Amino acid sequence: MVNMNTSQWFCFYKLGLILLNIVYMIVGLTLVVIPAGAKLSAVFTSWPIVGGAIACGVFMILMALAGIYGAVKHHQIILFFVSN
User: How far apart are CA 69 and CA 45, in angstroms?
Assistant: First the structure.
């Protein structure tokens, strides 16, 4: 087993949270871009379906941004509410 002190584990944990939130941001951006492009190319004709997908993407991006902020600033309350 690798001997790592507490600060090294904390840094590793923090980087893991940041990378995971970046993945969530990419998924959220995908949820925004793909339905918008599908609506522009007339694949979908229903605005509620496209709007719902875009709203989910925007919500996911906002949660990922809050997660990144909480990880960088060590803000436990934001991390608690984002993770629940």
Answer: 37
The model's pLDDT over 21-38, given as tens digits with 9 standing for 90+, comes to 999 999 999 999 999 888
Q: pTM higher than 0.85 for the full model?
A: no
Q: Kindly state the tokens that stand for 22.
A: 């970046």
Buried b (16+ CB within 10 A) or exposed e, 53-77: bbeebeebbebbebbbebbeeeeee
Give the residue among 24, 29, 30 at the shortest CA–CA distance from 67: 24
Give the separation between CA 37 and CA 76, rounded to whole angstroms: 37
